[in-house]
Amino acid sequence: MLAKHKIVTLGLQHILAMYAGAVVVPLIIGGALNLTPTQIAYLIAADLFTCGIATLLQVLGTRYTGIRLPVVLGCTFTAVGPIIAIASTSNLATAYGAIIISGIFVVLAAPLFGKLLRFFPTVVQGSVVTIIGLSLIPVAMNNAAGGQGMPDFGQPYNLLLALGTLVIILLINRFFTGFIRAISVLLGLIVGTAVAYTMGMVSFASVAEASWFSVVEPFYFGTPQFSIVAIVTMILVNIISMAESTGVYFALGKVTDTKVTDQDVVKGLRGEGVAIVLGGIFNAFPYTAFSQNVGLVSLTGIKSRDVMIGAGGILVVLGLLPKLAALTTVIPNAVLGGAMIAMFGMVVASGINILSQVDLNKNENLLIAACSIAVGLGSAAVPAMFDQLPTMAKMMLQNGIVTGSLTAVILNILLVHTNNKASQTAPANVTVSEAS
């Protein structure tokens, strides 16, 4: 049992690992829809509050919901485009109505999704986890360079900050043990931010402007409205998230030495469905399991669910105390990028470790791993190749995790399942000597 102060510190480390991804979604959507600063501030607060509730639901679990693994839930990037499109053509109330109905769909569809898990053997799991890690590497490198689209992107001081943060994390892991090693990422972020402050790269203006307390209220943007097109769109978004989360569950199972069963996945997906409904009610976003935190679990070796309970509690508090939430936004992108390189690299290494348990001398396994990783990485690296396709197809195929996972599952069916069935139905060739 971890001490309370260790649970809080380790939980904070997980929040800092996922914070940029959690905050950037409301910032992008709020900016695209020309929301006021007050409305954007509400979006961020509602997002953090609901992230915390969703994480607690998933980690604590009940008889019917919750994966009960050390997982953190955050808003899915897949929903950004569709939410902007729906709100632009109608209004935010219609977008949130679609989110609520799509969450109910996820709850109801979870058992059906669980029955498909026989198509996820070790070779598919290893390929999917590897694809998850590889698809996150560009995110880390963009942050290390200062943040994609930022005017100082690629400046030497950004690269040095990222390198310095990474070196600090590596040195702590090399020369320390126990709790200090477990919070290596947090210490790297603190030292990196302190160095950036001396360079004039850290501003506390957002902290000064933020209010001390605010309460998240249901239906802030109005009573939900419903549109068939919007609902179908959000259901497709959440089907993609279900596929992503399934891969994250398997990755966590391997990292924590826990056998993830069909029922575990069903309960996890049900938990996400409930979280999505809450996102619609509190005018936040659809939620999914954050893969970046898998790398942190692997890097620190801390597999306790208590840490994630602590993280969920802190997120709820941050959602109620905007000034504290703003404090975590002062970390420069380059510093975050340096930490992400280590964390996301650990996800890749975890996938490779899973694949090492597979007999890659078998041509079928080799083709499944090779083609799925290539397709997944290619889709993420060159998303423009799908620009001429219909919007729904483009949205799905530009997600490397989805394309890679689908490739792995389909190849497993074609190369392994059909081959096994063929060998079972083929007549036995019995020689005279064997018969006698």
TrEMBL record:
One of its GO terms (cellular component) is plasma membrane. Keywords: Cell membrane, Membrane, Transmembrane, Transmembrane helix, Transport. It is a multi-pass membrane protein. The keyword Amino-acid biosynthesis does not apply. GO terms for molecular function: xanthine transmembrane transporter activity. It is found in: Cell membrane. The chain crosses the membrane at residues 12-33, 39-60, 67-87, 93-112, 119-137, 157-176, 183-208, 228-252, 307-328, 334-354, 366-386, 398-416. PROSITE patterns: XANTH_URACIL_PERMASE. InterPro entries: NCS2 (IPR006043), UacT-like (IPR017588), Xan_ur_permease (IPR006042). Pfam families: Xan_ur_permease. Belongs to the nucleobase:cation symporter-2 (NCS2) (TC 2.A.40) family. NCBIfam families: ncs2, NCS2_1, pbuX. PANTHER family: PURINE PERMEASE C1399.01C-RELATED, URIC ACID TRANSPORTER UACT. This is Xanthine permease. It comes from Brevibacillus fortis.
